[in-house]
Amino acid sequence: MSDSSNNQKRGLIFACLTALLWGFLAIALKVAVTQIDPITVSWFRFSFASIIIFGFIKMKKPEEFSTLKKFPWLALVAATGLSLNYIGYITGIQLTGPNNAQIIIQSAPLLLGIIGIVFFKEKITKRQLVGIVVALIGFYFFYLNQLDHTSASGKSMYNSGSFYVLLAALCWVVYAVCQKVLVRSYPVRAINFILFLFSAFALAPLVDYQSIFQMSIGMWCLMLFLGLNTLLAYSFLGEAFKYADANKVGIIITLNPLITIFVMTALAYLEVGWIAADVLSIPGFISAFAVLTGAILAVKSK
Question: Rounded distance, CA 231 to CA 216, Å?
Fold first, then answer.
């Protein structure tokens, strides 16, 4: 077997691991916000990640810190986008559910593509245009289906939660555009360290520290999982893009909501008491699948 084939397989394995981590992330966040507020959870994730990255660079790649002597001010814009993305996404999960948030957040790559077309004059293929249309139709019917399965008293909360996820998607686009520029001049790890550290400091005044000290052992384990999820997912994603074709990696990553939907369905069937049941109806699943299919077509460049 050729080295190229081995690298492709290795890259796709890393992509699958990333999708697996992100598929469980929304579920873990839903459980976390039952005891800890969204800002505190986000601050913990940023703090944990920045400490680990700092330690790694200090021991393994200290020269990467020297690249930050000329401070990348654009990183502050990226960090603002990333921190708002984290808060918006977890708040949306808190107000709605993992399945809903995972589908609506797929608007992020679509928004990124549209911004590239409108502002950066990037060319759009017929397939990408079809993908955008299919995804938009899927979003519309998914929204109607979710709203139809929401009680009258809960519709306002659902709309608010969905708005927060859309805001998170838009903020992710700001982060992604800035990150794309920054990685041309700075190491990825060094940039991530700045982003996580700035976000942690920005959220620090709003953190409920008392709730952290009162966490049970189980909640500590969950919070550590969330911190590790942030680190490992982005590390695996970087390795995936290093070894495999970006198109193949992108398709696998886009399918990660299917993991969330499957796990949430299984948990509802098992009638667990530590997370509210969140099961899509058949029309809801079909519209969700349309969103994912459209997103794949829209981001696929070949």
Answer: 23
